[in-house]
Predict the structure.
Amino acid sequence: MGGVSAVCRFVLFWGVAASIAGCIPRDETRSSLERKAAQRIHTFLWLHEAAFTNRMRTNLAEIVRELGAQYPGDLHEKFRRFGTEAGFRDSFYDRYLFAPPGVSNTAIHGEVVLVNAEPYLDDNNQPVRIAIVRGGPGYEGWSFHETPEWLIQEIFRQANVPIPQKNSVPGPPKRLASKQADNRAIGEAVQMYFRNLARDWGLGPGSWWMLLLASIILFLAAITLLYFIRNILTRR
C-alpha cells in the first residue's frame, strides 16, 4: 500500500507541476507587439488626417483626444512587462516622436511622420525602430515599417535633421496609474530577470518563459528526488 500511495503522490505532484507550467504566459514577441501598436497609431493618424485636413500633427496624445479615443491602456500594460526597456516611464505616448517635415527616403517609400523614440531589439536581436510613413493620400497612403536603426540614422542624416528627442507628455488616467503601481511587484521582477538571462545567453526575446519553465521543472525534479531519497533512507 505504501508503494501505491507513493506512486499516487508522485503522479499528483507532477500533475500539479504540469498545471503550473501550463499557466505560464507565452508573451508575443517585442516585434509583434511593436507592430500591433504601430497598426493602431497608423489608423489614428489616417483618421485624424481625414477629420482635420491640413492640420499639423505633432502630438500623439492630442490626436487621440481629438478623435475621442481612449488612452491605450492595454498597450501600456503590455509594454510595461519589458520593465526598463518598455520605452516610457509614465505615458505610452512617450514611446513615439514626430519627425519634422521633409524627412523622406526612397527606401521607405514616403515621408517619415513618426518613429519610436528609442530603438529596440527585433526577433533577430538587431536594433530597429518602427517608422510610420505617409506616401500618398488616403488610408492606402499610410504605412509602417520595422526599420533597421542604421537606416533610420541615415535617413535623418541625409535630410540634415537630427532625430527628435523625447518630451514629457500627459500620463495615463490616475485610476490606470494606480492599478499599474499595484501590479508592479515580484512577478515583474522575476520576468525581467529571465528576460535579461535569455538576452545574455543569446536566446530570442520571447524565450524567457522557456528558461522560467526549465527552472520550475528542475526545482520540482530536485524536490522529487529528495522525496524518494528520504523514503529510501527511512525504510532502512
About this structure: The chain has two domains: 30-184, 185-236.
